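Lecture notes, continued. The same structure-token format from the folding unit now serves as the input rather than the output. Read the line below as a description of shape only.
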């Protein structure tokens, strides 16, 4: 039995962080296994004892250097049919910017700010590697649109 099947499934959180002008924090990095650079939203796996929102707050701070005053859940979804892990989507407002706190495997993460329509267009064009980011963008846009 592989290690993947013996470890408990860990939930994750993904965040749509919007500044006062409605711009969205978007990260980009090179993923050679998948053929190039892709976009993604801040997020990641929960650590032991963390709630989904605590995970979201930590990941946003670490990956993007952002803290937020206001948090709104956008929904919770299964990651895959083969796992019990769930993905928790959030929208964050009232942002304060600070330095990114990247791990060695994240050191090439580049942060940029996008207008929501451009971010959704990039999702539609397949520029996001994972589906949780585009889903979170669409849900956040629908909730405020």
């Amino acid at each position: 039995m592989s290690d993947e099947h013996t470890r408990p499934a860990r939930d994750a959180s993904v965040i749509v962080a919007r500044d006062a002008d409605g711009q969205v924090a978007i990260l980009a990095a090179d993923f050679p296994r998948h053929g190039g650079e892709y976009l993604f939203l801040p997020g990641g796996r929960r650590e032991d004892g963390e709630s989904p929102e605590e995970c979201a707050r930590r990941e946003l701070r670490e990956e993007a250097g952002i803290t937020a005053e206001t948090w709104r859940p956008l929904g919770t979804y299964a990651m895959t049919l083969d796992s019990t892990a769930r993905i928790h989507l959030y929208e964050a407002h009232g942002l304060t910017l600070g330095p990114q706190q990247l791990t060695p495997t994240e050191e090439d993460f580049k942060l940029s700010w996008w207008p929501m329509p451009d971010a959704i267009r990039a999702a539609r064009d397949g520029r996001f590697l994972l589906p949780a980011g585009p889903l979170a963008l669409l849900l956040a846009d629908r909730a405020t649109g």
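Point for the exam: The longest strand covers residues 66-78.
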